[in-house]
Amino acid sequence: MGAEWELGAEAGGSLLLCAALLAAGCALGLRLGRGRGAADRGVLIWLCYDALVHFALEGPFVYLSLLGNVANSDGLIASLWKEYGKADARWVYFDPTIVSVEILTVALDGSLALFLIYAIVKEKYYRDRVAWGE
């Protein structure tokens, strides 16, 4: 590692966006978890962050991929996926397998995270069964 490591503008922007989503997830989880135990607050923080990532990062990826490809798109989200695509080009150009998996994660995982947030906040009896598959 003789050369100095330098963080480019695209990589810095994507890290900043991920940090902002983490901060928003923490703030939202703590707000929703007021008056609850530490375990519930921790789970709410994670679920809020998880839902934000699925809907704010992966959702636009699916949208951009279905309309064309990320390589021909502009904007903050596109630059984040272009940075990610430097390691694996399937994320930059339409790959049916990657897009199919992302559609599933956005639709199923994102929705499940919202459903679990609702179950915890409203103290539904089924919240543990849904989370742990009991």
TrEMBL record:
<dbReference type="GO" id="GO:0016020">
    <property type="term" value="C:membrane"/>
</dbReference>
<dbReference type="GO" id="GO:0005783">
    <property type="term" value="C:endoplasmic reticulum"/>
</dbReference>
<keyword id="KW-0812">Transmembrane</keyword>
<dbReference type="InterPro" id="IPR007905">
    <property type="entry name" value="EBP"/>
</dbReference>
<feature type="transmembrane region" description="Helical">
    <location>
        <begin position="44"/>
        <end position="66"/>
    </location>
</feature>
<feature type="transmembrane region" description="Helical">
    <location>
        <begin position="12"/>
        <end position="32"/>
    </location>
</feature>
<keyword id="KW-1133">Transmembrane helix</keyword>
<keyword id="KW-0472">Membrane</keyword>
<dbReference type="GO" id="GO:0047750">
    <property type="term" value="F:cholestenol delta-isomerase activity"/>
</dbReference>
<dbReference type="Pfam" id="PF05241">
    <property type="entry name" value="EBP"/>
</dbReference>
<protein>
    <submittedName>
        <fullName>EBP like</fullName>
    </submittedName>
</protein>
<feature type="transmembrane region" description="Helical">
    <location>
        <begin position="98"/>
        <end position="121"/>
    </location>
</feature>
<dbReference type="GO" id="GO:0016125">
    <property type="term" value="P:sterol metabolic process"/>
</dbReference>
<feature type="domain" description="EXPERA">
    <location>
        <begin position="39"/>
        <end position="134"/>
    </location>
</feature>
<comment type="similarity">
    <text>Belongs to the EBP family.</text>
</comment>
<dbReference type="InterPro" id="IPR033118">
    <property type="entry name" value="EXPERA"/>
</dbReference>
